[in-house]
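Onboarding guide, step 5: your first structure request.
Type a short instruction followed by the sequence, for example:

Predict the 3D structure of this protein.
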Amino acid sequence: MSTGRQQLKSTKQYLDQRGIKECWFAYFGQGVLEPHYYGVPSKPLPTADSLWMNERIDVPPSIDGIVLVSAGVLSGFEFGPAPSTRTASFNSSVQLRSSTLRSSS
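The system replies with structure tokens like these:
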């Protein structure tokens, strides 16, 4: 079984155990492995791949609720070697406040 499939099955199990019925998901494998196929009740968030493929993903300016970010997206490796300021830049553009994700752009 591929690692991506196992990750999605584990994500589904994690959400089920906590009674989570909906969430937002920035998933590295989106488009190849669909979270919904594995029962993950999520709405997609943009990733480097979706931006590169010019895929339109509608996201409101403010998101309330659970936000999942896959390790592949979080690592940022799709953007290539990063300057040491990438994390600081990310932290200044996204603020987490009491389980609400708000974009400052």
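Each response can be followed by summary notes, for example: The chain has four helices and six strands.
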